[in-house]
Backbone:
């Protein structure tokens, strides 16, 4: 399900502009939306979900125009949404919570709800915990309940906002694998500030900065922003200046620094192959220059 965004702007009543003339084209498959906190990602997610109205601009989702009531209804029927903060009823079990959400989504057949809920609990590896109360679930388990509720109506568009924030490494890997599996014939829009989540799941992405589109293209294209701009320096003295230090690791009696800079930050600097994180930082440096 293709998403086409033209001139999208959202200005709040206090004058804050969360989105500024955004143009974006999202194809079918898993697509990353990367940006720091406050870049406008959540505002964009909420507009897609029909929870916010833009100030101006146009959004087409699968050919449906979100500016019309008919378009918003059509999109909401094909949309699964996992917000950053999913409210749950802690005294309900996972199975009962999903049953309640399924009723709200119009799944009125009890046998059909039971079948679908069992399928999704198996998919998110929660079958063994299905009859436990949600208040006893870990953060990762709650995120998996969240993705199950988003999938109840078998949506063609799945929108997930910061899904791995606060998860431990094992749960983060599990969740990323799950999102990749779900991206077959549907569009999965992954909004995050965690570069590694995009690096491990997406081939294409967009980067938002201050509500504007800073980059749109392939992961390799973003990595190329740091081409010939990544250096390593090993020194027993102070960290080199003149660039952005990405990492610092002890090495012998000194430290080995990884630095993103337009020129060698030290006479002893050696070039290094760039990563997606390096490309993102190089892009942000150019945006904020």
Residues:
């Amino acid at each position: 399900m293709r998403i086409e965004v033209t001139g999208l702007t959202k200005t709040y009543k206090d004058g804050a502009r969360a989105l500024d003339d955004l143009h974006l084209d999202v194809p079918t498959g898993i697509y990353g939306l990367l940006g720091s906190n406050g870049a406008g990602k959540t505002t964009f997610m909420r507009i897609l979900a029909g929870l916010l109205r833009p100030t101006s601009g146009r959004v087409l989702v699968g050919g449906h125009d979100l500016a019309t009531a008919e378009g918003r209804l059509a999109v909401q029927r094909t949309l699964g949404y996992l917000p950053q903060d999913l409210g749950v009823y802690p005294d309900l079990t996972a199975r009962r919570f999903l049953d309640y959400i399924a009723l709200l989504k119009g799944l009125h057949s009890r046998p059909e709800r039971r079948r679908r809920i069992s399928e999704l609990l198996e998919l998110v590896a929660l079958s063994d915990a299905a009859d436990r109360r949600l208040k006893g679930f870990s953060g990762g388990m709650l995120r998996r309940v969240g993705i199950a509720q988003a999938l109840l109506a078998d949506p063609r568009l799945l929108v997930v906002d910061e899904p791995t924030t606060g998860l431990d490494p094992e749960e983060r890997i599990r969740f990323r694998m799950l999102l990749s599996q779900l991206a077959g014939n549907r569009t999965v829009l992954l909004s995050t500030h965690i570069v590694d989540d995009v690096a491990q799941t997406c081939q294409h992405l967009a980067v938002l900065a201050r509500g504007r589109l800073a980059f749109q293209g392939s992961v390799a294209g973003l990595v190329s922003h740091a081409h010939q701009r990544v250096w390593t320096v090993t020194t027993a003295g102070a960290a080199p200046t003149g660039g952005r230090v990405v990492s610092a690791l002890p090495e012998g009696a000194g430290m080995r620094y990884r630095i993103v800079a337009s020129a060698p930050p030290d006479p002893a600097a050696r070039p290094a192959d760039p990563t997606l994180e390096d490309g993102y930082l190089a892009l942000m440096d150019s945006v904020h220059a």
